[in-house]
Amino acid sequence: ACGSDDGKKDEGASKESSKFKVAMVTDIGGVDDRSFNQSSWEGLKAFGKENNFTEKKEYTYLQSKSDADYTTNLTQLSRQNYNLVFGVGYLLQNSIEEVAALRPDTNFAIIDAVAKGDNVASITFKEQIGSFLVGVIAGKTTKTNKVGFVGGMDSELIKKFESGFIAGVKTVNPKAEVVIQYAGGFGAPEKGQAIANTLYSSGADIIYHAAGGTGLGVFKAATDLKKQDPSKEIYVIGVDRDQYDEGAVEVKGKQENITLTSMVKRVDVAVQDISKKAMNNEFPGGENVEYGLEENAIAISEHTDHVSEEALKAVDEYITKIKAGEIEVPKTKAEYEAMGF
Amino acid sequence: MEYVIEMLNIRKEFPGIVANDNVTLQVKKGEIHALLGENGAGKTTLMNVLFGLYQPEKGEIRVNGEPVKITNPNIANDLGIGMVHQHFMLVDPFTVTENIILGKEPSKAGKINLKDASKKVRELSERYHLSVDPDAKIKDISVGMQQRIEILKTLYRGAEILIFDEPTAVLTPQEIKELMMIMKSLVNEGKSIILITHKLKEIMEVCDRVTVMRKGVGIGTVNVSESDPNSLASLMVGRDVVFKTEKKEAAPADVVLDINGLSVKDARGIQAVNHLSLSVRAGEIVGIAGIDGNGQTELIEAITGLKKTISGSIKINGKEIQNLKPRKISESGVGHIPEDRHKHGLVLDYSIGENIVLQTYYQKPLSKSGVLNYSKIYDQARSIISEYDVRTPSEYTPARALSGGNQQKAIIGREVDRNPDLLIAAQPTRGLDVGAIEFIHKRLIEQRDNGKAVLLISFELDEILNVSDRVAVIYEGEIVAIVNPRETTEQELGLMMAGSKRMEAGGKSHG
Amino acid sequence: MVKKMSGLFIPVLSVVLGLLAGAIIMLVSGYNPIDAYSALLYGIFGDSYFLGEAIRTVTPYILAGLAVAFAFRTGLFNIGVEGQLIVGWLAAVWVGTTFELPMLIHLPLAILVGGLAGAVWAFIPGLLKAKFRVHEVIVSIMLNYTALHVTNYIISYVLTDKLDKTNNIFATATLRSPFLSGLTDGSRLHWGIIVAMICAIIMWFILEKTTTGFELKAVGFNQHASEYAGMNVNRNIMMSMVISGAFAGFAGAMEGLGTFGYASIKGGFTGIGFDGIAVALLGANTAIGVVLAAFLFGGLKAGALNIPVETPIPNEIVDIVIALIIFFVASSYFIRWILNRINKKGVK
Amino acid sequence: MIGLAAPLIFTALGGVFSERTGVVNIGLEGLMVIGAFTGIVFNLTFADVFGAATPWIAVLVAMVAGTIFSLLHAVASITFRADQTVSGVAINLLAVGLTLFLVKKLYGKGQTDMVTENFDRVDVKFLSDIPIIGKIFFSNGYYISYIAIVLAVVVWYIIFKTPFGLRIRAVGEHPMAADTMGVNVAKIRYAGVLLSGAFAGIGGAVHAMTVSNEFSHSTINGQGFMAIAAMIFGKWHPLGAMGAALFFGLAQSLSIVGASLPFFKDIPSVYLLIAPYVLTIIALTGFIGRADAPKASGLPYIKGKR
Ligand SMILES: Nc1ncnc2c1ncn2[C@@H]1O[C@H](COP(=O)(O)OP(=O)(O)OP(=O)(O)O)[C@@H](O)[C@H]1O
Ligand SMILES: Nc1ncnc2c1ncn2[C@@H]1O[C@H](COP(=O)(O)OP(=O)(O)OP(=O)(O)O)[C@@H](O)[C@H]1O
Ligand SMILES: [Mg+2]
Ligand SMILES: [Mg+2]
Questions:
Q1: Which residue among B205, B237, B269 closes a domain?
Q2: Calculated CA dihedral for residues D277, A188, D261, C146, nearest 10 degrees
Q3: Is the distance from the beta carbon of residue D105 to the nearest atom of ligand 2 less than 6 Å?
């Protein structure tokens, strides 16, 4: 019974298979996590719209409810004859490798990690560079010469954020101190809040977070403090997307915003780019595609109300320098320590 | 004829059993009316119906001639009916006052007015000579005192009709005497009392009339003045009952249990057993008489390994066993019928068969290299069940579903069947009907006749005097006298238990 | 007779009622329940791949359920299965990645070490309960969080150099097999289901057939009577937690050696340990009950993944249905009461 | 620090009510989820209408929602004699499933938007100037946190000083005794469970509105279980439960503050991360000792059963 059923399904699928189909698997966060899952989905949707695709037919996503679901979801989409399946987040690396090996006819792409396999494209970003740029802004903006960095988990990926940020701050403001703290998880806003409160009360006036949901707690702490004492000049630097909305706060009937800027990582750009390539049979299988300034995949956010002209100018300068290869932004603790920061 | 309570043709069913079948009970104003019957005859059920805890399937209840529907205890209270339950209904961590006012709390601006309440309790207590401390916590007071609290609870609610369900099963002789006085003074105040008891002596002493039940059926009501214990007993059991178990002269042989200078602390760390010395020989029953709380519990727990000793020695057949693990001690030949069968004697959720092997399941042939042999286990259970006349639907029935008497028989079967050199029986007949008591006494004496040592601890002086070959009186953790039961009386024993003859008797015991 | 029938009847009726209630919720929310349930069924039985994945999902549920049930049967509430599972997972993977041994030794060793780690983790609340009368529930809750942080630390600082996950285990320590995978069209079905079944039999055997089980249950029912009967109450409390923890550790080992093949740092709990409570209770804390409940629970969870593929319905509907089934089973008194009424009416 | 403790205090107080009447409520976690969901959804929907009062009204609405949801637990475990743990576990599963289902239905995505109407923070005058303690307890707290503490005292008063409290404790210790004294056991137990729902609803809403500002699958993750731990730690006493919740909060913040102290800088962060939990275990073992639950807790009361 199973077999015949299967046959029908495949037949139905192959009829439409002239059309390109693309899908993605999120981690536990889902497609509205205000982070890379959301960005990816936005990219996929934009790609779909561009090509007049219909959701659930030619493009779709599956949300994972636990780590064990990654493989199932990836296989599921491949079995439904999606030509390209994205795995969003480094957590899916193993699953991608495993499924890709078993299903050579499907192309896979992993975001934020490097995975093996001829039918796998690895998408990474030069987060250290974006972090460097927001570090420049922080270094130029801080009045207390003390800024904070809140990481989710102490991992290789998050170290890239930390390293770039420190380098950026110290490059423009050698006197400034950067306090680094890790929350031990990406889903612990209460920890983020407590850490941020400690940092602000110890004199830091800007906090850059690379902590996913934990970072929401950082925003929460800052908006609360602002509300309590509107004269306080404290800021949060957002990550991954433009986190301007997260910084909104109503103080005495006036709309304020404590988001200084955000390190924007255009996962959507990368997703659209890879999808396009795959559709045009240019899929970079087996390659690691690194996205950065050149691809417009790393940037600072457009909302820069609180950023001085001078700081913005500095950012532009450093962008040029980095593009020109005059500055090498550190990616690890060892690298930035070697550079004397 | 004026009745305060009339229960007419009451029928109450439980799944699979008719607990009360067409029972009629009529209580006159100002009388003490006894309700008599074997274990499981349906007495408690009948009273629970009267108190509104159960709804009868059939029958009518009248209070002062008026037909009433008692659907919950509140209504019973309002009708002036109060009940002192077989198992006390007291909240341990509460104070006396809190227990009494529960459900009818005097309050001021939403706050309990404890001062007023406690004053009222004190007044009530004085009026009925109950000498209760309103501020004591239940867990700190004696069983007898707890019972008075139960009485106070009903009086506080203005009860005119009081039901006592086996009030004396857990009391010492002294406490029983005081309770009788209290009941009489209550009746003198115009209250009426229904008394459930298995002790015919008590009925003869205080009751005016008695209603007898057998297997859920009312057998009839008789005037106590026109009756005697023997006729009541046979009315209740349906056959003649022997009260004083026949026994041969004891033939004591070697010492089995030998205790020397034993001291033990109780749970609160106070020395409860005080340099106690005692020996029990094979072929004799030694009874320990004493008022509750004089170290009996700690003595047993020390012998059976449940409590550490602080000094002294305990020998079984010459081998020291103090502070060994309970299992080692039981293997050295000690059997133990615990005082509280529900708490210590049985795993109520296990089948009666499993309970019967609770001491021996790990031994061959019941198990081999850690694997149980259930067919052997239930074989053995079956044989004990039939030998000890445990009335149970089957060996697979949960122990919980058996009546107290049958549970007790199962425990006795379990302990005696192991053929221990020393059998410790603590309150073995508490709450049991005369038929069951007779059976258990026979078994203890049989054990003695088979050349085993038996140590009997009981608050029932009757029992002590009937069954024992020697009686040791315990007072404040010491054996203050050892007497021959045939040469003493209840009065004498009572005095010694209260500590009066201490010096003189103490001299004797060391002789 | 009625009793015998209701033994199976009530769970089945509860499942039916749960599905019905779920359907009503979907109808009210404007979804088509038939679509949802056919997608669900297809996601379980649709083809051999789905079936394989469903059975794989069931595996840790059986073991976690056994862990909870075993403790329950002996009067303890092991709410720490989650933590024990996590340490078992890591320990098994540690053996799987560190040693190079022939499969015949390596795989059993890795599984056993996983179980051992879970047992050790569970021993702590057992010990504290036995010696200090500290409530096992609160110690286990605390140890769940501790396990999470400690294993994360070990993965990134001890087993690797700041990586998010360990290496993959050697092929000699894997529970996966090309045979099972081939049989089920490439699913991740692994031999763990056999291990889980064996553990269910072990639990049944210990509790129903051995003197140890006799003591453990007796202590669970009535500590005082057990002590009077010469059983060592404290030792039994610890033993019960240790055995329960071992089952939990095995559950972790199944994930580490079967489903994943590695251990990664976790942002939060796996949830399997907590779901194990539901599985155990649904299965009335018996071995066979747990197995059946785990199949129901795991099957529904696995099938749920297919709902968003084929319909616009949020697959949380399946969680709702599972919760309702548990409610109905728990309220069986109510069902029995209704059945009795119907019966009585029928007789009249 | 007191901010972290407030939701735990509310919820643990709810737990005290329920367990004191003899009903184990492992469903506190789920009830918090309901509270968090309701609070956030209400806040988002009515922020325009109620302005600054929104979070306060949202808490009240969450309280009502928690109460209604806890009715399920009450009916199952009191009237239908369901195993209380089973019913509680079902509450947890149902709450998560239902709220996420509704979030997806209402917002078409897995989490809500961020609320903008927040609770105000305050420094308590004078007290916040006390060295160390002032900083930990009295500076930068939410009004609602201080309400939690006041409420703990109120609950203590109710349970230990009023007729209702006396009945609650009696029912939890010895329901049959209470029954024979004319106390309606079922009614008191219903009250206990519904109050626990109300309190956990508040706790969930307060947590959501003071910590995450949104509702998603991870908004409540384990706080309910921590509240249960606090209740047991506090020996089923309202003030004890409050103390335990504050202790958890303190331990949490120590582990966070500690990371920025020079002394702790070099020790691996894992020690600080597990410190709150390990400290709790040590405290329980060392100083607190055994805790006895209300005697009848966990047992359905069946009239006439012995
Ligand atoms: N709650 C119950 N459920 C089922 N059956 C019961 C229940 N209570 C009593 N019974 C049945 O009713 C019968 C009468 O019990 P009851 O407690 O009234 O006896 P009793 O005369 O008080 O005995 P005892 O002298 O031991 O106190 C018992 O044999 C028992 O089978
Ligand atoms: N849960 C139950 N199910 C069925 N019958 C019961 C149950 N509980 C008690 N009974 C019945 O009630 C009767 C009286 O029980 P009870 O425990 O009062 O006995 P008892 O002889 O008075 O013992 P004790 O005084 O030691 O408690 C017994 O005959 C027993 O069969
Ligand atoms: Mg009775
Ligand atoms: Mg009795």
A1: B237
A2: 20
A3: no
C-alpha span between B298 and B474 (Å, rounded): 12
Atom in ligand 2 nearest the alpha carbon of residue B40: 29
Interface pTM, i.e. ipTM: 0.85
- Report yes or no on B373 lying in a domain: yes
**Contact D97/C340 with Cβ under 8 angstroms?**
no
Q: How far is the CA of B349 from the centre of ligand 2 (A)?
A: 14
Q: Are residues B25 and B36 in the same domain?
A: yes
| Gyration radius of chain B over CA positions | 24
Q: Which atom of ligand 1 is nearest to the CA of D304?
A: 1
Tokens of D21: 């009447």
Which among A88, A31, A114, A95 is positioned nearest to C264, based on CA atoms? A95
Check residue D16 and give its pLDDT: 96
- Ligand 2 in reach of B40 Cβ (< 6 A): yes
Which chains have 3 or more CB–CB distances shorter than 8 Å to chain C? A, B, D
The partner residue sitting opposite D163, judged by closest CB among B51, B83, B105, is B105
Give residue limits of the domains in chain C. 60-192+204-288
Residue of chain C nearest A152, judged by CA positions: C267
Range of the domain at B395: 346-419
Chains A and C contact (Cβ–Cβ under 8 Å for 3 or more pairs)? yes
For a mutational test of ligand 2's pocket, the pick from B39, B53, B166, B197, i.e. the residue with the most ligand atoms closer than 8 A to its C-beta, is B39
**DSSP string of D260-296, one letter each residue:** TSGGGTTS-HHHHHHHHHHHHHHHIIIII------TT
Tell me how far apart the alpha carbons of residues C237 and C227 are, in angstroms, rounded to a whole number: 12
Helix (H), strand (E) at residue A208: strand A206-210
- The predicted model scores a pTM of 0.88
Please tell me whether residues B427 and B457 are part of one structural domain. yes
pLDDT 10s digits, D124-150: 666 666 666 556 556 667 888 889 999
The nearest alpha carbon in chain C to B336 belongs to C228
Nearest to C272 by CA among C286, C284, C259: C259
Cβ contact B–A (≥3 pairs, < 8 Å)? no
Domains and CATH numbers, chain D: 2-118+131-287 (1.10.3470)
What phi-psi label fits residue D24: left (phi over 0), alpha (psi between -120 and 50 degrees) or beta? beta
The helix (run of H) or strand (run of E) holding residue D20 is helix D2-20
The DSSP annotation for A3-60 comes to: HHHHHHHHHHHHHHTTS--EEEE--TT-TTSSSHHHHHHHHHHHHHHHTT--BTTTEE
pLDDT digits (tens, 9 = 90+) for B298-316: 999 999 999 999 999 999 9
In degrees to the nearest 10, what's the CA dihedral of D101, D106, D111, D114?
-150
Kindly determine whether residue A75 and residue C149, on different chains, have CB atoms separated by under 8 Å: no
Burial of B267 (C-beta count, 10 Å sphere; 0-12/13-18/19+):
exposed
Which residues lie closer than 8 Å to D224 by C-beta, 6 or more apart?
Answer: D11, D27, D28, D29, D30, D31, D32, D33, D92, D200
pLDDT of residue A255: 85
C73 pLDDT band (50/70/90 cuts)?
very high
Q: How far is A22 from chain D (nearest CA, A)?
A: 20
B400 lines ligand 2 (CB under 6 A): yes
Cα nearest neighbour of D248 on chain C: C142
Tell me, yes or no, whether B168 lies in a domain: yes
Q: Which of C211, C222, C227 sits opposite B306 (nearest CB)?
A: C227
**Which tokens go with D94?**
């149902």
Best residue among B43, B403, B409, B429 to mutate for probing ligand 2, ranked by most atoms within 8 Å of CB? B403
Q: Are B430 and B167 in contact (CB under 8 A)?
A: no
In terms of domains, do B326 and B365 share one? no
Q: What is the pLDDT of residues D187-209, one digit of tens each?
A: 999 999 999 999 999 999 999 99
Kindly indicate the confidence band of residue C172, based on its pLDDT and cuts at 50, 70 and 90. very high
